[in-house]
Design brief:
Strand order of the largest sheet: 6-5-4-3-2-1-18
Number of helices: 10
Radius of gyration: 21 Å
Helix content: 25-40%
């Protein structure tokens, strides 16, 4: 059975707390693991969450502030120590190449794994697999930052009652699926569109076009909400979002499941984030992220 879920490794912003590790998120998608923004302590949080180095196929870094990238040395060395048998592709802002090089070779170790670098320099598609495409969009932060979006291609859902109505059964079903037409009956006649799932990861940013483009129509949006609404000026000055801004993006974009994270250490009560998100008008599935939480993607609507 395919598994699609978000594993939250850490939810703090610049300063970790007793209960919040620095950033780290793993998206498990049909056997493909994508690690987003590994901050300090990510390797240990992976162990606690039951995520192995072998589970990782990609690493996506939004930007090179320490709380989003200082876990890279440990994760990369663990990938090599465990001799992960497949290539691991790393995406990061091209302008931060020198930071990535320093982090990758922060200490001596033996390289045993093919680590494929694919830096991001502009908006657009980064990768295409049979299961999904990966895109990036530029965000608005004091250093160059990109958000990421996973999109599953649309498929078809065969309806048994329509097959019976057209007298198609047995091996003919497979033939119709392969060829698209059988005895004048098309695939459209016996199926409906199965909308592909969409996932977006939006970290440190002010409101900008990239935020809305990434969030549009998502089944799950993981988005920073560093500040409460009363601290909007601080959010703008430091290149961040408030919880109300994040929630309104989700409302405007038709997001089904909103995951709020990246909380400032100044707020001890996570319940206030849920309250302000609801006050901003978001009435869908809502998760105020906690370390080591597993959040399944919503079930398909069709």
């Amino acid at each position: 059975m395919s598994v699609r879920e978000l594993v939250v490794l850490g939810t703090a912003s610049q300063v970790p707390t007793r209960h919040r590790n620095h950033n780290g998120y793993v998206l498990l998608w049909d056997g493909h693991g994508i690690l987003f923004d590994p901050g300090e302590g990510t390797q240990r949080q992976m162990l606690r969450a039951g995520v192995a180095a072998h589970d990782l196929h990609r690493i996506c870094v939004t930007h090179f502030h320490g709380d989003h990238s200082l876990g890279l040395p440990g994760v990369i060395q663990r990938i090599n120590l465990d001799r992960v048998p497949h290539d691991v592709t790393v995406h990061f802002p091209r302008s931060g190449q020198h930071f990535f090089d320093r982090l990758r070779y922060a200490t001596a170790y033996r390289e045993t794994v093919s680590l494929v670098q694919q830096p991001v320099a502009e908006d657009g598609q980064l990768a295409a697999t049979p299961s999904f495409t990966l895109d990036a969009r530029r965000l608005s932060h004091p250093v160059e930052s990109f958000g990421y979006r996973i999109t599953e291609p649309d498929g078809r859902r065969i309806l048994p009652e329509l097959l019976a109505e057209h007298g198609i059964a047995g091996p003919d079903v497979g033939r119709l699926q392969r060829e698209g037409e059988l005895r004048g009956v098309t695939l459209d006649d016996v199926s409906t569109v199965r909308r592909g799932q969409k996932f977006a990861f939006v970290m440190d940013t002010r409101l900008c076009d990239g935020v809305h483009a990434l969030a549009e129509g998502c089944d799950m949006l993981v988005i920073e909400s560093t500040f409460l609404d009363e601290d909007e000026r601080l959010a703008t000055d430091h290149g961040h979002l408030t919880v109300g801004q994040a929630a309104r993006v989700a409302v405007d974009s038709g997001v089904r499941h909103l995951v709020l994270t990246h909380f400032s250490q100044r707020y001890p009560d996570p319940g206030v984030f849920e309250q302000q998100a609801r006050e901003a008008g978001f009435d869908g599935e809502l998760t105020v992220a906690q370390d080591l939480l597993r959040v399944p993607l919503p079930k398909r609507t069709t």
